[in-house]
Write a structure and sequence with these properties.
Elements (H helix, E strand, L loop, with lengths): L1 H13 L1 E4 L2 E4 L4 H4 L8 H11 L12 H12 L25 H16 L3 H8 L14 E2 L3 E2 L12
Antiparallel strand pairs: 1-2, 3-4
Length: about 160
């Protein structure tokens, strides 16, 4: 009887909990598991647990439906200081937002397109597939696309045919 209960507990921990269209393994702690959601960092997760008074060390599988709903509502509209949010002073609206999931990907894509359109230095680097934040390119960034090497030439050997 006891073995059966342990087996059932093991199956429940292996199950996935879905929060904001992201599957989170049930055996993860809330603090770590929430970082699986795109747009939720460790500091944001910590603040969420603190504000909603959820134990950080609690397993995701043991969250009630009400707590999951609170978490997803909080991630959509957080009541936190601006420095914890991921989109401060948005260019189009001027507001401070917090984006998650596919909204975050979409905004990043639009930002890169805008940089390319206005022909800024960063936009040109994005268009060329080069690093945009000042890294060296002499010894790195030699591959393009499907691991095709670019810009590497062998020195010609003198005196041998």
């Amino acid at each position: 009887m006891e073995e059966k209960a342990k087996q059932e507990q093991g199956k429940r921990e292996e199950s996935l909990i879905r929060i904001l269209s992201t599957d989170i393994p049930g055996n993860k702690k809330v603090y770590v598991g929430l970082t699986r959601i795109k747009g939720v960092s460790f500091s944001f997760s910590n603040a969420l647990c603190h504000v909603l008074k959820i134990d950080k060390n609690k397993k995701i599988i043991s969250l009630s439906e009400e707590e999951i709903k609170k978490i997803s509502d909080f991630i959509r509209k957080p009541e936190l200081p601006d420095f914890l949010l991921n989109r401060r002073k948005d260019i189009e609206t001027g507001k401070t937002l917090h984006l998650s999931g596919s909204d975050l990907d979409l905004r990043r894509e639009f930002d890169i397109k805008r940089l390319k359109k206005i022909r800024s230095y960063r936009g040109l680097r994005h268009a060329l597939g080069q690093p945009t934040r000042g890294q060296r390119t002499r010894s790195h960034f030699r591959t393009r696309g499907k691991k095709k090497t670019v810009g590497v030439m062998n020195k010609p050997k003198l005196g041998k045919k």
